[in-house]
Structures are given as structure tokens and as C-alpha cells.
Specification:
- The chain has 400 residues and is an alpha/beta fold.
- Among the domains are: 3-37 and 75-111 and 240-324, FAD/NAD(P)-binding domain (3-Layer(bba) Sandwich); 119-236, FAD/NAD(P)-binding domain (3-Layer(bba) Sandwich).
- It has eleven helices and 22 strands.
- The chain has a five-stranded parallel sheet with strand order 3-2-1-7-18, covered by helices on one side. Strands 11-10-9-15 form a four-stranded parallel sheet, covered by helices on one side.
- α6 links the parallel β9 (149-154) and β10 (174-179).
- It starts with a strand and ends in a 9-residue tail after the last helix.
Length: 400
């Protein structure tokens, strides 16, 4: 029997790991299954563009994995039983169990309102393609009405900044307000922060700093200081959370539900489980937790691939880089900031801004999409064989 590797999630981290494992392990010895709740590869880093009205490619995963030997299972992960080594999947047919010998957990994160009244009912989020399209439809309706409208973006993290500036540039007829809980761009250098403020001014984005949102209503945002903002579309980017599946399964997780992993992305409590991307709580080479980001997903994914291949083939497991080098932030299509950080995660004084920064980030996004859409590019002539110890799956575990 083949060694069964199951990858949960087909975002940047999950798709990368699945493709890399298919490249490096002989197909006769492993069976790789990717479980995804959606049939497309979602470019999450570009969902603010999709919401603003731009076209963003979403390749079908069936096409992405065609010819790779990777099996695609569409369905929502509802549970993991690490003792029986099965994943519970809900799909159109009701549900089933998918058995594994090695599990790669890459379910990522989603928007979270953290209990703010009305936010879940009335605010839009852009952590998924369907929700971004719903916001796009709302913005379209405001434009069709011919009266403009008020858009309030709550949250001054990278997603909030990119969303506010993208909507302001793409839809100049709308009035856009960005609510920042603290100082706008607090994690940026002085120069980059000034650049951000100029960009907001140029695009007509009103910034409210040191403002706490108390509640969201259908047409208003209520702030803790008593102020009330009219809002035809409220966009919530003030928090993210991970799936509760790992915690419910009994894996060792942090307070916010991320899986605690060792240096090679292996669960500290369940050695058959690896975690990458936003789902993993991993310490970088500087001893600090890696932030939830696409860049971190790339590093943790590369380390997990090396670890899984090394374990299954009896090879020494190399340590790949686990670092966070900076933030890439777009302010619409023609402006942005590349902010390098030091080993402690603090912004360096120098930054790259303007069209150059926008072009660099655009290139990174195109490269990420291309790499994901061509998972077996650079296929080695000689793949690694799995050792006899791992070539036979446990007969007690369930199959698809």
C-alpha cells in the first residue's frame, strides 16, 4: 500500500506543499490527496483588488493538479481524529472520512469580528473569494445608483490599508474612511509612514486614528468616543482567526488555535501531523513567532516539505530559512511601500516606495500564481523512494 499524505487546504501554503511533494517523491510509493473547500485556487493577497472591481484569476484546482498524480477532494474539513488518523470531510454527498499516514494542516485563517456587535451581520470581509465578491456587488450597486456612497474600512493592518486605498483608486466616486485603532502605519519606518499618509491624502482616504469601533449597524458605524459614521458598506479587516478543528482534535495549540510545531513544522504533540502557514505557531530563526502572512507560508511550507521528504526517505532533514524580511504593501495599482525589517522585526529606516514598490509587489504576486499553477515545473529526473518503514499504510485507518 502507498503511504498516504493528506494536505488540508489549497491556499498558497497547501498548494505549494502538495506540488513540491509530488515533484520529490516517487508516485508509486505515495498517494497525495488535497482537501479543499473551494474548487479554485484563491489569490488571497489580491482579494482587495477583486472587491474593488478588478479581475483576479482563480485557476481551477482540478486543472492545477492535472497530470501531477495529486488527488483533489472537494469538501469542508469538519474534524480530525489523530488517534485513528482520519479527516472528516463534509461535501455535497453528506460526508466521509479520508485516511492519512502523514497529515499536512494548511487551513489558513479567516476574518474574525471578535464579538463586536453587528459586525458579523452587517460588515463585509475579504478573507475569501465569495465574501470579496459580495462586497464588489455592493460597491457596484452604489455606483449604479449614481449617488456615490460612504465606505468605512475598519482595521489599519496591511489588509485594511490595501483595501481602503484600492477602493478609493478604483472607485473615485465613493467616499472612503479608514479607521485605525492606533497610529496609522505604526509598524513602518518614519519615511514609509509619511509615504502612506501622502498616498491616503492623494487618494482622498479619510483616516481616523486612535478610534475604537463599538458596533456596526446596517448604515452606520458607532465608535467608542461617541462619534457615528454613515456607511453604505462597512469592510471589516480588524482581525483574523484560525479554524477550531486543530484544537478540537486535541493537538497542542496556542490560545488562538494555531498548532504548535517544532523547528521542522512537526506538531509537538502528534508526530504524524505537520502544520504550515497561518495554521502554524512557528518560531523563526530570530526566536520570535513568525507572523501570519503569505511570506511565512512560503518558508514554513518549504521546511515542511524538506522534513516530510527526509522522514519518509531516511535522509537527513535540512533546516531551511525561517525568517521574516519585511512588508509589501500596495496603495492601489501605482503606489506602494516595501518595508524591510531587522532581525527583531522592527522597521529599518530605509524603504522602497512609489511605482517601483508597486511593480515589485505585482511581480511577486504574478510569480506566486505561476508557481502554484505549475506545481510540477522543474520535475527532477530522479525522485526519492520511500523507505520500507513508511511504504505501507496502517491498515486500521480509513480510506476515502
Amino acid at each position: 500500500m502507498k503511504h498516504r499524505i493528506v494536505v488540508l487546504g489549497a491556499g498558497y501554503a497547501g498548494a505549494h506543499v502538495a506540488g513540491s511533494l509530488a515533484r520529490r517523491l516517487v508516485a508509486e510509493a505515495v498517494e497525495i490527496t488535497v482537501v479543499s473547500a473551494v474548487p479554485e485556487f484563491v489569490q488571497r493577497m489580491r482579494l482587495h483588488q477583486l472587491a474593488s472591481g478588478q479581475e483576479v484569476a482563480a485557476p481551477r484546482l482540478a486543472d492545477v493538479f492535472a497530470g501531477t498524480g495529486i488527488r483533489l477532494r472537494l469538501g469542508r474539513v469538519t474534524g480530525v481524529d489523530p488517534e485513528r488518523r482520519v479527516v472528516e470531510v463534509a461535501d455535497a454527498g453528506g460526508g466521509a472520512e479520508v485516511g492519512y499516514d502523514t497529515l499536512l494542516y494548511a487551513l489558513g485563517s479567516h476574518g474574525a469580528v471578535h464579538g463586536v456587535p453587528g459586525a458579523a451581520e452587517y460588515a463585509f470581509d475579504i478573507s475569501g473569494r465569495p465574501s470579496a465578491l459580495r462586497l464588489r456587488e455592493r460597491l457596484d450597486s452604489l455606483g449604479a445608483a449614481g449617488r456615490g456612497g460612504d465606505v468605512v474600512v475598519v482595521g489599519d493592518g496591511l489588509t485594511g490599508i490595501e483595501t481602503a486605498t484600492e477602493i478609493a483608486e478604483s472607485r473615485p466616486g465613493l467616499s472612503v474612511t479608514l479607521i485605525a485603532r492606533g497610529e496609522l502605519g505604526a509598524r513602518l519606518s518614519d519615511g514609509a509612514r509619511s509615504h502612506l499618509r501622502r498616498a491616503c491624502g492623494r487618494l482622498g482616504v479619510t483616516v481616523l486614528e486612535h478610534t475604537e469601533v463599538e458596533a456596526v449597524e446596517a448604515a452606520r458605524v458607532l465608535c467608542a468616543d461617541g462619534s457615528v459614521l454613515a456607511s453604505d458598506a462597512t469592510v471589516w479587516t480588524a482581525g483574523f482567526a484560525v479554524s477550531p478543528v486543530a484544537a478540537a482534535a486535541g493537538l497542542d495549540v496556542t490560545q488562538d488555535g494555531r498548532i504548535v510545531v517544532d523547528r521542522v513544522m512537526r506538531s509537538v504533540s502528534h508526530p504524524d501531523v505537520y502544520a504550515v502557514g497561518d495554521s502554524a505557531y512557528a518560531l523563526g530563526d530570530n526566536g520570535r513567532p513568525l507572523p501570519m502572512s503569505c511570506a511565512s507560508a512560503g518558508y514554513t511550507g518549504a521546511q515542511a516539505v524538506s522534513a516530510i521528504v527526509g522522514r519518509l526517505t531516511g535522509r537527513t532533514i535540512p533546516r531551511t530559512k525561517l525568517e521574516y524580511v519585511g512588508n509589501h504593501i500596495s496603495f492601489g495599482r501605482r503606489d506602494g511601500v516595501l518595508q524591510p525589517v531587522d532581525a527583531e522585526g522592527r522597521a529599518k529606516p530605509k524603504y522602497v516606495g512609489g511605482r517601483k514598490a508597486a511593480r515589485i509587489k505585482s511581480g511577486i504576486l504574478r510569480m506566486s500564481l505561476w508557481a502554484t499553477s505549475h506545481p510540477t515545473f522543474g520535475l527532477p529526473k530522479r525522485r526519492h523512494h520511500v523507505t520500507a518503514e513508511h511504504a505501507v499504510a496502517s491498515p486500521a485507518t480509513a480510506r476515502v
